[in-house]
Amino acid sequence: MKKETEFDFNEAVQQLLAGKKISGKDGVLAPLVKQLVEAALEAEVESHIKDDVLSGNKNRKNGKTSKTIKSTDGTFELNTPRDRAGSFEPQLVKKNQTTISNEIEERIISMYGLGLSYRDIIKHIEEIYRVELSTATISAITDKIIDKVKAWQSRPLETIYPFVWLDAIHYKIKDGGKYVSKAVYTVLGLRLDGKKEILGLYLSESEGANFWLSVLSDLNNRGLQDILIASVDGLKGFPEAIKTIFPKTEVQLCIIHQIRNSMKYVASKNHKEFMKDLKPVYQAVSKEIAEDELLKLDEKWGKKYPIVLQSWHNKWENLSVYFKYPPEIRKVIYTTNIIESVHRQFRKLTKTKGAFPNENSLLKLLYMGIQNASEKWTMPVRNWNLTLSQLAIFFEGRLDDFLEV
Question: Where is this region: Disordered (predicted)?
Fold first, then answer.
């Protein structure tokens, strides 16, 4: 008479012929999975005890412990052997391990990376594998991404990036028992091969020189030594911070951000007319013509909207940098919109979340968004060879060590 737990191959064949599934919950192979795993664990503990005895240590088996294991063939109770000395560490199914298939975890992380909520992931996993998971289990599995995030955040960077953009996206994150709005600053670089790369993500509750210095110091410490042109969103203190760490870098404030911020202070009834008068400023063919148009704008609107015109004048040095370059370079640097595609990917992933219980829960999801975006960055930006040759002329000597002649 066979043991209750013994797998009956003849019976399994009959079940297959009767139309029963070979795998999955209640599949033909489900009892075999438990039997094989437990047999392997028995072999492990016996080998461990044998080694102990040969080393002169007294040790022997000491019963078993039971835990629930999830696999692609359903859920079952696994009996893991113990040893008297307590030194046995099973390798096939480790002490804190609750699954015996990477397939489930990989599927969970994949769905998480597509922006599915925990509830949806649990539903899909149950439909596919007939395995019931809790939100705590999903969280524990996705937390494995955090180690990858930390490694990614500290990875070495290239020595020089011709262009770097920085922009922010805001999220609600729980901090000290309450939810606060924090800015996530994305630093996007364009490498010498013309391909995009996210250099880092930085969370900040408040902006300022110290924050910007910490961001730039981190980039510098990871190997970045030179940036030709940095395009930023006009945040106070950033141009000065860049010059502190990278004194040779040209800093271009984003024209689109400047326009958006200006229109906040212009009455809606004047929007159309004001924009018509503003276009000749930022669309001018040269800095000189742009400055003439800015004076005309000031003469017409300066008294009505002094804050707006004062902002353009105060920031003009960094707003007007792009005028010195040809169209190929202007298109690349005059705005940080190139980074918006990354933030759109972020929003797609986070739209089901609302708020986040901690910074890690947000960072691991944004990291998945970066991986998704990076998969599409296989080609250099348009007209890159022409742009690079122009940069070599404008920034004489700074690219010589990196370009093949």
Answer: 54-81
CA distance 166 to 250: 14
- pLDDT tens digits, residue range 362-382? 998 899 888 888 888 989 988
DSSP reduced 3-state for 239: helix
SS3 of 261-301: the string is: HHHCCCCHHHHHHHHHHHHHHHCCCCHHHHHHHHHHHHHHH
114 and 199 fall within a common domain: no
- Spell out the residues 6+ positions from residue 334 whose beta carbon is closer than 8 angstroms to its own: 231, 252, 254, 255, 282, 322
- Specify if 405 maps to a domain: no
Q: Is residue 318 part of a domain?
A: yes
Q: How far apart are the C-alpha atoms of 88 and 96, rounded to whole Å?
A: 14
What's the total number of domains in the chain? 3
Q: Identify the H or E element spanning 179.
A: strand 178-190
| Exposed / middle / buried, residue 211 (Cβ in 10 Å: 0-12, 13-18, 19+) | buried
385 or 112, greater pLDDT: 385
pLDDT tens digits for 197-248? 999 999 887 666 678 788 899 999 999 999 999 998 877 777 888 889 999 9
Q: pLDDT of 68-110, one tens digit each? A: 877 665 677 888 888 988 888 887 677 777 765 566 677 777 7
Contact 213, 242 (CB under 8 A): no
Residues 382 and 273 in one domain: yes
- Residue span of the structural domain in which 30 resides: 1-100
Describe the crossing of helices 359-374 and 145-153 by its angle, rounded to 10 degrees.
70
Report the run of H or E that residue 78 belongs to, with start and end: strand 74-83
Q: How many CA atoms lie within 13 A of 239 on its CB side?
A: 17
Instruction: Answer yes or no: do 73 and 123 share one domain.
Output: no
- Asked whether residue 134 falls in the same domain as residue 211, the answer is no
Classify the C-alpha dihedral 389-244-251-214 as positive or negative: positive
- 348, 115 Cβ separation under 8 angstroms: yes
Are both 281 and 363 inside the same structural domain?
yes
**Residue 382 CB neighbour total at 10 angstroms:** 11
User: How far is it, in rounded angstroms, from Cα 336 to Cα 324?
Assistant: 18
Judge if 185 and 261 occupy the same domain. Answer: yes
Measured in Å, how far apart are the chain's first and last C-alpha atoms?
Answer: 81
| One domain for residues 347 and 371 | yes
SS3 content of the chain, % helix, strand, coil (to 5): 50, 20, 30
